[in-house]
Amino acid sequence: MHIWKRIGLLLSAGIVGGCSILPWGKLHAPESFGLTPVAPRIYVEAGADEATRTMLRDAMEKAESAIRAAYGNVISRPVVHACITEKCYAVFGGYGSRAKVYGDRILLSPRGLNWHYLAHEWSHAEMHSRLTFSAWWHMPQWFDEGVAVAISEAPENSESHWQYLVASDVPRPTQRELYGFKSLRQWDDAVGRYGEKKNAERKAKGEPEIRPVYTAAGHALRPWLATAGTPGLLAFIEKLNDGETFESAYQTANPSFAPGDATR
Ligand SMILES: [Zn+2]
User: What's the pTM?
Assistant: First the structure.
């Protein structure tokens, strides 16, 4: 989740609280809060074993390759902060989620320690780096999330999870509904409404976890990215930066794409 969109939301609500700003400050002084350097731009919570350190170095390389494959090259240089305990994650402001991005700072929870979550948050950082503030502000949340889901290939949001949701008749957003999740608040509300925030309870009861909203975004974006390729994604970014509306840039950057109803 983008901290600036979160701050924008708080500003619009007139309530900028210290708790929203604090993690960003802490992430700029990670060694003062129990993290140690593993490699350039990677910090891990003190006490992490060598296997975890090696995994993080590998995850960074794999995530960077995925970003390069999608965007053609890599502009952003995020700094990664990996927590091996929930306590650490809470200290840096992570609650409930598996990973977060604050500008160019990525925070991974103990449940998000792999290249998939790193690449997901990195995609947000990369998109942010390539867009003007105005273009980024007007990009719908579902699109940003869909690109991140598709690029990061997380099994939790895969096509096979989508097929499971369809086969099990788990409620999921229609394409029209998905396209309406434009603001961070609308996205967050949908994630709650479709039950993605109750996976800890499901797991405790031995039930399968469900992620209908993130998975719907990935499901809708995969065919768009497959036909657009890197040139189409870059054309889309350029059009948005030139002031084109999202709807127009989404269509004209990828003229061969026929959307149909991608959430069926
Ligand atoms: Zn995301």
Answer: 0.88
